[in-house]
C-alpha cells in the first residue's frame, strides 16, 4: 500500500492503537500530524519518529479532542504545515464511568467533531478516508461499562449514517468504523468504578470469549482501511477477530 504524498491526522496518537496506526502510515509513506493531550510525551515521540522516518514527516500538536477550539486549531495547523489532508483517524478515547460526561465529550463529541472537520477540509475531487475508532462495545454491551458502551454505539451509528450520506451525495470520502475487541494497551489500566466492580466477572468472561490481542496483531489486521479511495466511497467495520465485518 503506497501512501506517498498523503497527509494524515491522528487523534490520541501518542500511545496504544493511535501510535501503532501512526507508524503504519509512516512506514507506507504518509506524513502524519500527531494530536494528543500530553505535550512532553508528544514531543518525545516526534523525536523518535524524526530519527526513524526522517525529519518533516510528522508534527505534534497538543490537542484535547473534547475542546472544539483546540480541535479546530489543530486541523488548521495541520493544513498550514503540510498543505492538505487526506486521511483522518478519530482514535482518542477514554474509559471512565465515574466522569462519564467527560467520556461522552471525548469518545463521542470528539469523533463527531473530528469527522465534520475532516469533511470540511478534505478536497472533494481528491477523495479522502476517515477512520473512526469504536469498539466491539459499539456492537453489543460491555456490562461493566454502560456509558462507554453508549459512546461506542454512538460512534457506529454516526459513522454509518454519515457514510451513507457521503455515498448518496457523492462526497468522495470513505468513512470507516473500527470495532476492535480487547487490545493490550494502556487502556487496560482503566479502573471500573465500585458500583460496577461486581460485574468484573462478566468482563472476565468477555476476555475469555474474545481473548486479548497484542497491538501488533490488531494493527496488522486493519491496515488496509487506510488505502486511498479508488472506487468511490464505501464503509465497513473491522473487528479485531472478525475482519471485514460488514454491517450494511
Ligand atoms: N485497548 C482496547 O482494548 C480497545 C480500545 N478501543 C478504542 O481504541 C482507542 C484507543 O485506545 P487505546 O490505544 O487502547 O488507549 P490508550 O489509553 O493506550 O491510548 C489513548 C491515547 O489517547 C490520548 N487521549 C486521551 N484523551 C484524549 C483527549 N481528550 N484528546 C486527545 N487525546 C487523548 C491518550 O493520551 C493516549 O495517548 C479508544 O477510542 C478506545 O476506546 C476499542 C476497543 C478495544
Ligand atoms: C477493560 C478494557 C476495556 C476495553 C474497552 C473495549 O472497547 C473493549 C471491548 C471489547 C469487547 C466487548 C465486547 C462486547 C461483546 C458483546 O456485547 C457481544 O455480544 C458483541 C457481539 C457483536 C456482534 O458480533 O454482533
From TrEMBL:
Catalytic activity, reaction form: (11R)-hydroxy-(5Z,8Z,12E,14Z)-eicosatetraenoate + NAD(+) = 11-oxo-(5Z,8Z,12E,14Z)-eicosatetraenoate + NADH + H(+); resolvin D2 + NAD(+) = 16-oxoresolvin D2 + NADH + H(+); resolvin D1 + NAD(+) = 17-oxoresolvin D1 + NADH + H(+); (15S)-hydroxy-(5Z,8Z,11Z,13E)-eicosatetraenoate + NAD(+) = 15-oxo-(5Z,8Z,11Z,13E)-eicosatetraenoate + NADH + H(+)
Functional description taken from the UniProt entry: Catalyzes the NAD-dependent dehydrogenation (oxidation) of a broad array of hydroxylated polyunsaturated fatty acids (mainly eicosanoids and docosanoids, including prostaglandins, lipoxins and resolvins), yielding their corresponding keto (oxo) metabolites. Decreases the levels of the pro-proliferative prostaglandins such as prostaglandin E2 (whose activity is increased in cancer because of an increase in the expression of cyclooxygenase 2) and generates oxo-fatty acid products that can profoundly influence cell function by abrogating pro-inflammatory cytokine expression.
Gene3D superfamilies the record matches: NAD(P)-binding Rossmann-like Domain (3.40.50.720)
Family note: Belongs to the short-chain dehydrogenases/reductases (SDR) family.
Record-given protein name: 15-hydroxyprostaglandin dehydrogenase [NAD(+)]
Classification of source organism: Eukaryota, Metazoa, Chordata, Craniata, Vertebrata
Gene name of this polypeptide: LOC114659995
Swiss-Prot/TrEMBL keywords: Fatty acid metabolism, Lipid metabolism, Oxidoreductase, Prostaglandin metabolism
Entry's EC annotation: 1.1.1.141, 1.1.1.232
An example molecular function term from Gene Ontology annotations: 15-hydroxyicosatetraenoate dehydrogenase activity
Annotated organism of origin: Erpetoichthys calabaricus (Rope fish)
Single GO BP term: prostaglandin metabolic process
Amino acid at each position: 500500500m503506497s501512501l506517498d504524498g498523503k497527509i494524515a491526522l491522528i487523534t490520541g496518537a501518542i500511545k496504544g492503537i493511535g501510535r501503532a496506526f501512526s507508524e503504519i502510515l509512516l512506514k507506507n509513506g504518509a506524513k502524519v500530524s500527531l494530536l494528543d493531550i500530553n505535550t512532553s510525551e508528544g514531543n518525545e515521540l516526534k523525536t523518535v519518529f524524526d530519527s526513524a522516518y526522517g525529519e518533516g514527516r510528522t508534527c505534534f500538536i497538543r490537542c484535547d479532542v473534547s475542546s472544539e477550539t483546540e480541535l479546530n486549531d489543530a486541523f488548521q495547523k495541520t493544513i498550514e504545515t503540510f498543505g492538505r489532508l487526506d486521511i483522518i483517524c478519530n482514535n482518542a478515547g477514554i474509559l471512565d464511568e465515574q466522569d462519564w460526561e467527560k467520556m461522552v465529550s471525548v469518545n463521542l463529541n470528539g469523533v463527531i467533531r473530528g469527522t465534520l472537520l475532516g469533511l470540511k477540509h478534505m478536497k472533494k475531487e481528491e477523495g479522502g478516508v476517515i477512520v473512526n475508532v469504536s469498539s466491539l462495545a459499539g456492537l453489543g454491551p460491555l456490562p461493566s461499562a454502560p456509558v462507554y458502551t453508549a459512546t461506542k454505539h454512538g460512534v457506529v451509528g454516526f459513522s454509518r449514517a454519515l457514510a451513507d450520506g457521503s455515498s448518496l451525495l457523492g462526497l468522495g470520502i470513505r468513512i470507516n468504523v473500527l470495532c476492535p475487541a480487547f487490545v493490550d494497551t494502556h487502556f487496560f489500566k482503566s479502573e471500573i468504578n465500585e458500583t460496577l466492580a461486581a460485574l468484573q466477572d462478566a468482563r472476565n468472561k468477555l476476555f475469555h470469549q474474545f481473548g486479548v490481542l497484542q497491538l501488533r496483531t490488531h494493527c496488522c489486521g486493519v491496515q488496509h482501511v487506510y488505502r486511498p479511495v479508488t472506487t468511490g466511497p464505501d464503509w465497513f467495520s473491522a473487528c479485531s477477530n472478525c475482519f471485514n465485518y460488514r454491517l450494511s
